[in-house]
Amino acid sequence: MFRNLTPVVKNLLLITVGVYVISAFFMPQLKAFFALYYVHSSRFMPTQFLTYMFMHADGWHLFSNMFGLFIFGPLLEQFLGPKKILTLWMVCGVGSGLLYSGYTAYRMNQMDNSISQFYSNPNPDNFREFVNDNPGFFKSGVYDFIDAYDRNPENQTLIQRAKDNLMSVREMQANVPMVGASGALFGVLIAFAMLFPNTQLFLLFPPMPVKAKYLVLFYGLYTIYNVINNNPLDNVAHFAHLSGLIIGAALVWYWKKDRSNFY
């Protein structure tokens, strides 16, 4: 099985797994430098648009991305060649990071508007709305505080405490890191579906065959649903996945259009 690995795919696997082992067991501080942070965070560095691809949250996160590369990457490399498969992986990964950063900036702007609205008109209803929009950042005890604030809406101590809570949540949101090669992997998935649409793949769960184009269509629709649904308790960067699909599709479309260079 491993003898069928192509050079670029094998090197990407070795580098990514190696970085994970080093960061997980020997140098956990690497995450502070390699993970991708909000562009206005004090932890942000431009190099993170590249390095975040080689960091993963845990072993399962690493396995799922590398397994996808292991399954779909070799055939793509044989067909496209080493330069194009590496270009696909890197462009989709970096591009996903860039687009996700724009999406994060948009969401941060929404949060800043909500905070400004509260500051200009501090009241329990505005605070409750903010809590409901960002439930993952508050402990259950916050609703006891809201009840107390409801009963004393003019209490300056409670107002200041509410403001402190809002700014604390903003700080946490600004410093939530994104890691993983999922954006790059989704670019590989869409490329495989576009180039080998009728290839039969056998799923493990449920155990059944499915054509590549239908599998990727399912992943695409599921990703779009999660982006629209925008569950605040979901810590998966679905927009980065969608970005990888879009960039990968555009890249393969361009290569197929330029047939004199593609074949």
UniProtKB/TrEMBL annotation:
It holds the Pfam family Rhomboid. One of its GO terms (biological process) is proteolysis. Belongs to the peptidase S54 family. The chain crosses the membrane at residues 12-39, 59-76, 88-106, 176-196, 208-225, 237-255. Residues 47-106, 173-254 form the Peptidase S54 rhomboid domain. It is an enzyme of class 3 (hydrolase). Coiled coil: none annotated. Keywords: Hydrolase, Membrane, Protease, Transmembrane, Transmembrane helix. Its main location: membrane. It is found in: Membrane. Signal peptide: none annotated. GO terms for molecular function: peptidase activity. It is a multi-pass membrane protein. This is Rhomboid family intramembrane serine protease. Its EC number is 3.4.21.-.
